[in-house]
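FORM 12-B: Structure-to-Sequence Request
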């Protein structure tokens, strides 16, 4: 039999096809012979594996997967394979009450394809007291009531057909909440923008500028033109893990007044040219006015645990956390979102639904490790605390720049410590509620909508 490598799509289809063809799966499984499988091609082995899984022969399935040599697949192909399988089978994982076999099957094949994902090495971190690492953001003692500004922001998360990106709206509403005259403009309006009056600031999404750059437009010339009508030009990077924007930021840093990042460990801000221009505010706003959702939670004696977010290639380690927590029957309810798919909602409705989902659990579990191994502060970190919910988060060094572990949130580093943290919370509901309240109060003092506006006022006054 030929041992030539088949295209990835064929390989995935070979594995998945028997799962949807019961009669064929029974036939293939009945013919399966361990002594003859060695001579088969990779796609034929995966066809047999899918058949064994379909008929419930988990031991034979696991033995076959463990003996398959996946080294002929590139790393990118193995990543795509895992992401595709998880996406295809996630309904069975999170909806079915009898999901043990599906979880076990995915654990087995994910370990075989990406052992580094399923057995993550624990990075050594310098042991410092969290309070010594807290950064101190500048806040103005007064807010000028006559500030006028415009937010230019991308429309979609991932291009046409994906969900509308709500960060622009959240920033606009946050700044306007303190009486400022701030409007949100569409991405294409920046090129045609002109006015007879001077605005105090323009806040521009770096992805918008990158799109102009890729289309052959001189971003520097565009920034020079824009400055005609704005006293300050501020560029925001809401996705600091997205390295594709760094070259453009390096090119334009001399032509802007400030660059706003949402995490203290964004390496770009270490550049000498950024000194005096870097803002490290972690919140883009959005949930401060949701008092009803914040206060409508049941008794903490019956703590509920939830995860709300996407699981895809950029954050693929979440497959590890999801599968392991399901395998160990940890009481975490999963709501998997898909920013790459249009949800058919306007921005206000979509944002309200998301906040409602976050507020539905006493404890929000947050996984922060990305595919490259970095641990990045996510939006859910601040969003959870702002809703007065307890944040139970995978270890993230930059988190210690903004909040204190144990006082404002709880942390875990592996599946055992996640389980232990959940048991602690369930056994000590009053302590859990107190930590959530302390985190919320600290948020109000340092990172609320009001504090963002005070921080902006400092930039505008400089």
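FORM 12-B RESPONSE
SEQUENCE OUT:
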């Amino acid at each position: 039999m030929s041992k030539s490598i088949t295209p990835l799509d064929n390989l995935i289809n070979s594995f998945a096809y028997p799962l949807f063809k019961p009669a064929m799966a029974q036939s293939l499984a009945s013919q399966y012979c361990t002594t003859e499988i060695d001579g088969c091609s990779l796609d034929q082995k995966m066809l047999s594996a899918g058949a064994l899984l379909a008929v419930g022969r988990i031991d034979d399935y696991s033995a076959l997967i463990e003996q398959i040599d996946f080294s002929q697949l590139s790393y990118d192909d193995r990543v795509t394979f895992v992401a595709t399988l998880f996406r295809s089978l996630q309904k069975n994982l999170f909806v079915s009450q009898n999901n043990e076999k599906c979880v076990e099957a995915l654990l087995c094949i994910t370990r075989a394809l990406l052992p580094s994902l399923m057995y993550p090495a624990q990075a050594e971190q310098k042991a410092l007291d969290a309070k010594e690492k807290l950064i101190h953001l500048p806040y103005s003692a007064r807010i000028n009531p006559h500030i006028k500004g415009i937010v230019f922001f991308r429309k979609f998360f991932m291009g046409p057909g994906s969900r509308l990106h709500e960060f622009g709206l959240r920033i606009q509403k946050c700044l306007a909440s303190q009486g400022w005259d701030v409007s949100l403009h569409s991405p294409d309006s920046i090129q045609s923008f002109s006015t007879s009056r001077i605005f105090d600031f323009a806040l521009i999404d770096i992805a918008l500028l990158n799109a102009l750059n890729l289309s052959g437009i001189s971003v520097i010339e565009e920034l020079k033109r824009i400055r005609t009508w704005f006293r300050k030009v501020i560029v925001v990077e809401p996705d600091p893990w997205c390295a594709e924007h760094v070259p453009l930021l390096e090119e334009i840093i001399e032509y802007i007044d400030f660059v706003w990042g949402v995490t203290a460990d964004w390496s770009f801000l270490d550049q000498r040219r950024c000194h005096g221009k870097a803002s490290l505010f972690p919140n883009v706003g959005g949930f401060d006015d949701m008092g009803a959702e914040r206060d409508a939670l049941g008794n903490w004696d019956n703590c509920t645990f939830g995860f709300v977010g996407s699981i895809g290639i950029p954050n693929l380690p979440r497959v590890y956390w999801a599968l392991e927590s399901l395998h160990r029957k940890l009481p975490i309810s999963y709501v998997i979102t898909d920013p790459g798919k249009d949800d058919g909602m306007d921005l206000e409705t979509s944002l309200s639904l998301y906040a409602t989902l976050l507020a539905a659990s006493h404890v929000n579990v947050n996984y922060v490790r990305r595919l490259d191994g970095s641990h990045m502060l996510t939006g859910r970190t601040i969003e959870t605390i702002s809703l007065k919910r307890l944040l139970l988060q995978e270890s993230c060094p930059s988190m210690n720049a903004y909040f204190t572990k144990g006082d404002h949130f709880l942390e875990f580093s592996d599946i055992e410590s996640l389980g232990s943290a959940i048991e602690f919370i369930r056994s000590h509901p009053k302590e859990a509620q107190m930590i959530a309240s302390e985190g919320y109060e600290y948020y109000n003092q340092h990172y609320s909508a009001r504090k963002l506006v005070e921080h902006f006022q400092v930039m505008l006054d400089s």
